[in-house]
Specification:
883 residues, alpha+beta, 6-stranded mixed sheet, 23 helices, 45% helix, 19% strand
Length: 883
C-alpha cells in the first residue's frame, strides 16, 4: 500500500519538472502532493496506528482496507482529470468517491474504538475520526467551486474555507494526533507525563478554532477569521508542549525526527502569516491573492517534510527483517540527512524571500532534487530488503524499531556545511544569471569626476545625499544638483507598481527594485553633468530619465554646451536588455518584406478549436506563464519576445456566455508583467496589477458578452509589451452561433524589429513605424502554409486586431462575405433581404469580429489586410480551395 504514496510523489516530481507546459500547474502540484501522496499516507498510517494503539493488529489488513484505498485513489484521479479537462461531472464523481472512502474510513475507526479494550492512547484514534469526518466537507466545497457560477467574493470565501478544512482539519488533526505517540518513539524516549491530558484538552480547542475560522470565512470579513485561526494555533501549542519536553529529554538525532520538527515550525510560521494576512486584507479576493505565498511553506515546508520524516522512520518497520535489517534499512534512508535537511529548508526560504526570480527558480529546483533523492533512497531501501538473503529475514521480530545510527558531530556539521554551500551557490549562480537584479557598485568614478574636457576635479571630501522617488514612469525630482567635487549618493524609493532601477551613464546603478523597495546608488565624485535613466526596456522612452547637474565647476557653461551636444553619444551606455535600433545591426536589415517562408515551412495552426455542444456554464482553469523566448517572426529574423506560454500570440481561449475563466498568471520572465482580459468586466486595480518576476496572481472573470476579445499585458509602456508579443484572443461564442464547416482565427499585429535576437525597438514604436504587419505572429506564413477549404463549405474566419497601433481591413480576394459580425453585433447575415454582401471587415486596434463565406470554385484565394502597404510587408496569406 505504501508504494501508492511513493507513486504519487513520483507523479508530483514529474509534474514539477514539466510545470511550464501543464495547465493549472500550481493547482495540480498542490493536489498531487496533498490529495494524492499525503491523503494516501494519512489513510494508510492512521489505520495502522489505530490498530496498534487499540491492540487490534490485524484490523487494518484485508480487502476492506484495500477497497477504501482504491476508492480514495480512483476519486483523486477523477478529480484531477476532471479539473484538467474541464469536465464537471468527473470532478463531482471523483469528489464523491474521495469523500465516501474517507467517511467509510471514519466509520471503521469508530467501530474499532467500540471493539477495543480501554487504551491509554485511544485518544489518538479520536483525532483520526475528527479529521476523517471533516474531509467530506472539504471535498464538497471543492466540488462546488469546480462547478463555477460564484461571485468573486463568494469563490474567495469558499476557497479559504476549503483550504482550512482540508489543511488544518483533515491533515493538521491527523498529524497532531499521530505525534502524540510517534514523536517520542522517533526520539526513543518515553511519552512525557501529561501528554495524554494535553492532547485530550487540545482536541476541542483545535476543533473549536477551526470551526470558528471556517464559519467566519463564509459569513464575515477577513479580520474576525483571524481569531479562529489564533484559537487553532493555541490548540497546537497546548498539544505540543509535551513534545518540547520530550525533545529536551532526548535531543533529536535522526533525519526523520529533525524533518518532522522542521515541518512543524513551518506550519506555525505559515499560520502566523495567515493570521497577519487576515488582519490586514481589505477583502476576501485580496486574502486569496496573498495566501498564494503560503503554498510553499505549507505544502513543501510542512507536509512534505513531515511526510518524508515519517516515512524515513516507518518504512523500515514495514520492510521488517529483524533488528539488524531494520537498522541497515534505516541507515540507507538517513544517508545525507543533515545535508538534505539543510537544503530543503534553505531552498524553501529562497522560495519565500524577496530574491531574484532566477534564484527562486534554482531554489525550487534544488528542493525538487531533494525530494527525488528521498524517493531514490526509498527505492534503494526497498530493493535492498527484497534482495536480502533468507537468513537475513528469518530474525524478524514485530517489536523491531528503526534505530538511526548516531551521527558523528563532524559528519553532521559536514552535511550542514554542504547544504549551506549549495544554497550559497544557488544565490550566487542566480544572481550571476540575473545580474540586473543585484546591486552593482559604480566602477566609473574617474569618468564622473572629470569635466567634459577631461580635466580632473579635485574631491572636496564632502558627500551630497539626495532622495529620488519613483512614481508611475517618473523620477521625482528628475534633476538633482551636486557641487562639483562632492561624492553623490542617490537613495531611490520605488513607490510605483512595477520594477525599476536607476542607471547613470558612468555605469553606476541600483539593483532592480520591486514596488515598495529602496536602493542606493553611489555615483562617486562628480565633476560634470550626468544622464541617468531606468534601464527596464521601454521605460526610458516613457520619460524615466534623470539629470545630475554639477554646480560651481570651472568652465560650467562650456561643459553644459558639450553635454547638450554629446547627449546622443550617451546612448551607447543604455541597458536595454537586447533592445537597440536598426542602425546597430537590427532585425530590419535581415527582413525582406516580400520573402516567403521556405518550402516545408509549417505555420501556426490557425484552425479554431470547435465550440462545445453543451450550453451550461463551465469553469475554465488555465495557467499562463510569462516567458522570454527567441522566436523567428519572419524568414531569417529572430526576436526575443515576451510571451504568454512561449508563443505570440498567446494561447487561444474559447467559451460561451456565462462561463467562468480562472487564469493563473505566472511571471517567469525577467521584468514585471501583467494581463488584461477584455472578455471580463471588473475593476483592474488588483487582477491587472504588475507582478515582478517569480510571482503569480489569479485573474478570475465571467464572460457576460460574446465576441472575440483581446487579452494583453497592461504593464507600462503597454504599447511595447504588446508589440513584443504579449497578446492573445478569447473567443466567446454568441448564443445563436450556427455551426460552420471550418473556423479559423487570425490575430493581426505589428513588428517593430530590434536587433537579431533582441526585443522590439521602442523608438520605432513611438514613431509608429512598423517593419512588418503579420497574422498570428509571422510574416507571410499563410502564403506558404495555406489555409484549406472545400467548395461549398461554410468557412468562418475570426479576426482580432491586436495592434498596438495599426487598423486592419480584412479582405479575401475573389470572394464575398455573406456574414459580418463586428464588435458584438451582426452587421450582415446570409438572409439579408436586400441580398447584401461585404468585402471588408474593418477593425480598429483592440477590436475583433468574424466573417463567413463560401468559395464558389476550386483555386487559390489570397487574403490580406486591404491597407495594402501592410499586406505587402506581411499581412497576407491564402486559402487553398479544393472540390
Amino acid at each position: 500500500m505504501n508504494a501508492v504514496v511513493a507513486g504519487w510523489l513520483a507523479l508530483f516530481a514529474v509534474a514539477a519538472l514539466a510545470h511550464p507546459f501543464v495547465p493549472a500547474a500550481r493547482w495540480l502540484l498542490v493536489h498531487l502532493l496533498l490529495l494524492g501522496a499525503v491523503s494516501n499516507a494519512v489513510v494508510i498510517w492512521s489505520g495502522h496506528f489505530a490498530a496498534s494503539v487499540l491492540r487490534l493488529p490485524e484490523a487494518d489488513r484485508g480487502a476492506p482496507a484495500a477497497l477504501r484505498l482504491a476508492g480514495l485513489n480512483a476519486g483523486a484521479v477523477a478529480v484531477i482529470a476532471g479539473m484538467l479537462t474541464g469536465r464537471r461531472p468527473l470532478v463531482l464523481a471523483g469528489g464523491t468517491l474521495v469523500a465516501t472512502a474517507v467517511a467509510v474510513h471514519a466509520v471503521w475507526l469508530v467501530r474499532l474504538l467500540r471493539r477495543a479494550l480501554p487504551s491509554r492512547f485511544a485518544l489518538t484514534v479520536r483525532y483520526y475520526v475528527a479529521a476523517a469526518a471533516l474531509l467530506p466537507a472539504g471535498a464538497a466545497t471543492g466540488v462546488v467551486m469546480a462547478r463555477g457560477g460564484l461571485s468573486d467574493n463568494g469563490a474567495a470565501r469558499l476557497l479559504i474555507a476549503h483550504e482550512m478544512v482540508n489543511l488544518l482539519g483533515w491533515l493538521g488533526l491527523t498529524v497532531a494526533g499521530t505525534l502524540v505517540t510517534l514523536w517520542p518513539t522517533m526520539l526513543r524516549t518515553r511519552v512525557a507525563d501529561g501528554a495524554e491530558k494535553a492532547a485530550r484538552t487540545a482536541l476541542p480547542v483545535l476543533l473549536g478554532g477551526l470551526g470558528a475560522a471556517v464559519l467566519a470565512a463564509l459569513t464575515l470579513p477577513p479580520a474576525p477569521t483571524a481569531a479562529g485561526v489564533g484559537v487553532f494555533v493555541a490548540g497546537l501549542v497546548l498539544a505540543g508542549v509535551p513534545w518540547i519536553r520530550e525533545a529536551r529529554v532526548r535531543t533529536p538525532s535522526s533525519f526523520a525526527a529533525w524533518s518532522v520538527a522542521a515541518g512543524t515550525v513551518w506550519l506555525l510560521g505559515a499560520l502566523a502569516a495567515l493570521t497577519a494576512i487576515l488582519l490586514t486584507s481589505p477583502s476576501w479576493p485580496s486574502v486569496v491573492e496573498r495566501t498564494a505565498a503560503l503554498t510553499a511553506p505549507l505544502a513543501g515546508g510542512w507536509m512534505a517534510q513531515v511526510l518524508m520524516g515519517a516515512l524515513s522512520f516507518l518504512a523500515p518497520v514495514v520492510l521488517g527483517g529483524g533488528p539488524t535489517a531494520v537498522r541497515s534499512t534505516t541507515a540507507v534512508l538517513e544517508r545525507g540527512g543533515p545535508a538534505r535537511l539543510t537544503l530543503v529548508n534553505l531552498s524553501l526560504l529562497l522560495c519565500v524571500l524577496p530574491v531574484p526570480s532566477v534564484v527562486r527558480v534554482i531554489g525550487s529546483t534544488v528542493l525538487l532534487g531533494v525530494l527525488m533523492a528521498f524517493l531514490t533512497l526509498l527505492a534503494t531501501a526497498v530493493r535492498a530488503r527484497a534482495t536480502a538473503r533468507p537468513e537475513d529475514q528469518s530474525a524478524a521480530r514485530p517489536e523491531a524499531r528503526p534505530v538511526a545510527p548516531r551521527q558523528r558531530p563532524y559528519r553532521v556539521l559536514g552535511g550542514v556545511a554542504v547544504g549551506v554551500a549549495v544554497a550559497v551557490l544557488t544565490v550566487a549562480g542566480g544572481g550571476a544569471a540575473d545580474v540586473r537584479s543585484l546591486p552593482v557598485a559604480g566602477s566609473s568614478d574617474d569618468a564622473a569626476a572629470a569635466t567634459e574636457d577631461g580635466e580632473a576635479v579635485p574631491p572636496t571630501g564632502r558627500t551630497t545625499t539626495v532622495t529620488v522617488t519613483v512614481r508611475g514612469m517618473r523620477f521625482t525630482p528628475d534633476t538633482v544638483e551636486v557641487p562639483a567635487g562632492d561624492r553623490l549618493v542617490i537613495k531611490v524609493h520605488n513607490r510605483g507598481t512595477d520594477q525599476h532601477d536607476l542607471v547613470l551613464e558612468t555605469g553606476a546603478r541600483t539593483a532592480r527594485l520591486a514596488p515598495g523597495r529602496q536602493g542606493t546608488l553611489d555615483a562617486g565624485v562628480v565633476g560634470r553633468d550626468l544622464d541617468g535613466w531606468c534601464s527596464v526596456v521601454g521605460h526610458r522612452q516613457m520619460g524615466m530619465v534623470l539629470t545630475v547637474e554639477a554646480t560651481g565647476s570651472p568652465g560650467q557653461a562650456a561643459a553644459d554646451a558639450a553635454g547638450r551636444e554629446g547627449h546622443e553619444g550617451h546612448e551607447g551606455h543604455e541597458s536595454h536588455e537586447g533592445s537597440a535600433s536598426a542602425t546597430e545591426g537590427g532585425g530590419e536589415e535581415a527582413f525582406d518584406p516580400m520573402a516567403e517562408p521556405p518550402a516545408g515551412f509549417t505555420g501556426r495552426d490557425a484552425e479554431l478549436p470547435p465550440a462545445r455542444e453543451d450550453t451550461a456554464p463551465r469553469t475554465h482553469r488555465r495557467t499562463l506563464t510569462v516567458r522570454d523566448a527567441v522566436r523567428e517572426v519572419a524568414p531569417g529574423v529572430g526576436q526575443r519576445l515576451w510571451t504568454f506560454d512561449g508563443t505570440a500570440p498567446g494561447p487561444v481561449l474559447r467559451g460561451r456566455v456565462g462561463d467562468v475563466f480562472e487564469i493563473e498568471l505566472v511571471n517567469s520572465g525577467t521584468i514585471g508583467h501583467s494581463v488584461d482580459f477584455h472578455a471580463g468586466a471588473l475593476a483592474p486595480d488588483r487582477p491587472m496589477r504588475t507582478i515582478p518576476p517569480g510571482e503569480s496572481l489569479t485573474y478570475r472573470f465571467t464572460a457576460t458578452r460574446s465576441g472575440v476579445w483581446m487579452y494583453h499585458c497592461s504593464t507600462m509602456p503597454m504599447s511595447l509589451h504588446i508589440a513584443n508579443g504579449m497578446f492573445g484572443a478569447v473567443v466567446i461564442d454568441p448564443p445563436d452561433l450556427p455551426e460552420a464547416d471550418r473556423e479559423y482565427l487570425l490575430v493581426q499585429s505589428e513588428l517593430y524589429l530590434g536587433p537579431q535576437g533582441g526585443t522590439a525597438d521602442p523608438d520605432k514604436l513611438t514613431a509608429q513605424r512598423p517593419d512588418a504587419v503579420v497574422f498570428n505572429g509571422y510574416a507571410h506564413q499563410y502564403a506558404r502554409d495555406r489555409l484549406t477549404a472545400r467548395t461549398g463549405e461554410r468557412v468562418r474566419v475570426w479576426v482580432l486586431d491586436a495592434g498596438p497601433n495599426r487598423s486592419s481591413a480584412f479582405h479575401v480576394v475573389g470572394s464575398q462575405f455573406d456574414t459580418v459580425y463586428q464588435e458584438g453585433a451582426h452587421r450582415l447575415r446570409p438572409d439579408d433581404p436586400g441580398d447584401g454582401g461585404a468585402q471588408i471587415l474593418s477593425l480598429a486596434p483592440g477590436s475583433g469580429g468574424f466573417v463567413e463565406l463560401t468559395f464558389p470554385e476550386a483555386g487559390t484565394y489570397p487574403f490580406v489586410s486591404h491597407i495594402m502597404s501592410d499586406a505587402e510587408r506581411g499581412a497576407r496569406g491564402a486559402f487553398e480551395v479544393t472540390n
